[in-house]
Structure formats: C-alpha cells, structure tokens
Amino acid sequence: MRALALALPLLAAMTGAAPAQGLDIALDAPPAGAVAPETLAQIRADLAAMSQAVTALRAEMVAAGPQGYEIAGGPGAIERMDAMEAEIARLTGEVERLGQRVETALAEATNRAGDIEFRLCEIDPGCDLGALTTAQMQGGSGMEVLAMPAPVPAAAPAQNPAEQADFSRAVEAMNTADPAGAAAQFAAFATAHPQSPLVPEALYLQGEALAAAGDGTGAGKAWLAAYTAAPEGPRAAPALIGVAGVIAAGGRQAEACTFLAEVGLRYAGSPSATEAENRAAALGCEGGAVPDDAGGG
Fold it and tell me: What confidence tens digit (pLDDT) does each residue in 200-213 have?
C-alpha cells in the first residue's frame, strides 16, 4: 500500500479532496517558498514521475479492493484520478509546446545572427568569406569577432561594484572623446563580466564607440553581438538599425532594406520602428520593400 499512501497527498492537492480521516501519512514535500524547477527537462521529469505515481496508485487501489477505495477517499477516487491524469496530460502538452517554441526561437536567432555576420563579412575587405562559410558549416564562426555572451536572464542579478566600476570607466572614456579607448573597455567589460545585465548595453555602446572611431565594420559586429545577447532588450532594435547602416554604407542597400523592414515588423510601434521606417524611406525602400535598383550581389 506504499504507493497508495504516498500518492494520496498529491491526489488531494490537485483535486481539492481531503484524504480519509485517521490516516497518518508522511510525505517529503519541498518547503514553502522553494525555488521551482528551472529547466523544461526537469519539468518533464516531474510530470512523468507524477504520472507514474498516479498509475501506481490506480493499480494498487484496484488490487486492494474495497479497502483501497476507502483509503483513497471513497467512490469518487476513480474520478479524481481521471482528472489528475487529464491535467498531467494537459501540462505535459503545454511543456512540449513551450519546448518547441524555445527551440524555434533559438534556431531563428542563430540563423539571423549568422546571416548578419555573413553580410558584414562580405563588405569587409579583410574578411575571408570562404573561411566564414566553412566555419559556419562546422558550427563555428571564422570571423574575428567578440564572443557572444549567453542571453541575459529576465531576472538577472544586480551588478556588483566591480562590474559597475568597469562599466563607468568605459562610459567616462566615451564621454571624454576617446572612442577607441572606450570601445576597448566595453569589449573588456563584456569579456570579464559575461553574465552581467549590463553586457547588452556595453556591446551596443562598443558599437557606438567604434563607429565614432571610424571602424564601421567593427561597429556592425559589436551591434550584432548586442542584438544576439538580448534580442528582446531595449538596445536590440537600435542595434539592428546600426547593422543596417553599416551594410548600407558598404553599398548593399538591398540587404539594409531587409534589416530595416525586420525592425519594423519585430518591434512594431516602437520609436526604433519609426526610425527604421524613416531610414528605409531615405534608402528608397518603398513600403519596406527592397528597391529594384539597390546594390548588392
């Protein structure tokens, strides 16, 4: 009767039914306020364990006969277990759909970043396009670019004093008309503090500093890194606009129009979408479409 006894609190919690009086059941439960599982894999495992517990409960209750039904809570036990199994199945389906959405989003972000890298390489005389293509096929990048940090979690921890001090020094260098020094310091910050919530901002400002120093291609790479670090962050849309500007300056207006149109679609209603629309109009991207006479190869 062990499986039956252990599953009763779960049955009661999910259905609102109270276990039969007089039962003294011990169950190791997580303390109040415990942190919930953080990965889809753990959630799947938990749901599978719950499903197995309900299945074991049903089998043991049937084997125990009338006594099992009584311990489980009476005539409604089967209905409650049916409801539990249906809820577990629903939650499992939701988790699977969420997993598919996450995988699709990651694939799209990876493809978009790779496409931008490829276009930046095309306009950089010093970039080996063949090496880039080979490296991408092997799962890497042949470009000498700043390593892209993992996306910052939505609830990222507050930066520590050392992070803030490093970031402030880079900002100060930028404000004192030292764009090259500022760019180097922002790059160093992102390398030294890859999990900081300030990384996307640092990468974006690195691009601004490189652009001010006359390194358009370097600025494009930094803006690409900023976008990849936080595609939904406040600097994502301006970063894409910056990349589009670099591509347009390299004579590839058609590709620039494509990225400006992406900003309008992905960040519709934002000030950046309006800016992208204005820039697209200046390039001749009618209605966000690529102009017929735009450059590009």
Answer: 999 999 999 999 99
| CB hemisphere CA count around 49 (13 angstroms) | 9
Query: Can you tell me which residue has the tokens 């990468």?
Result: 203
pTM (2 decimals)? Answer: 0.50
The ranges assigned to domains in the chain are: 1-17+38-121, 122-143+159-288
CA angle 58, 63, 64 (to 5 degrees): 100
CA distances from residue 243 to 101, 192, 193, 248, 258 in whole angstroms, order as listed:
26, 25, 24, 9, 11
Cα–Cα distance, 59 to 23 (Å, whole number): 20
Fold for 122-143+159-288, please state it: 1.25.40
Could you read off the pLDDT of 230-253 as tens digits, one per residue?
A: 888 899 899 999 988 988 888 888
Question: SS3 breakdown of the chain: % helix, strand, coil, rounded to 5?
Answer: 70, 0, 30
The single-letter code of the amino acid at 68 is G
Residue 124 CA, distance from chain mean position: 29
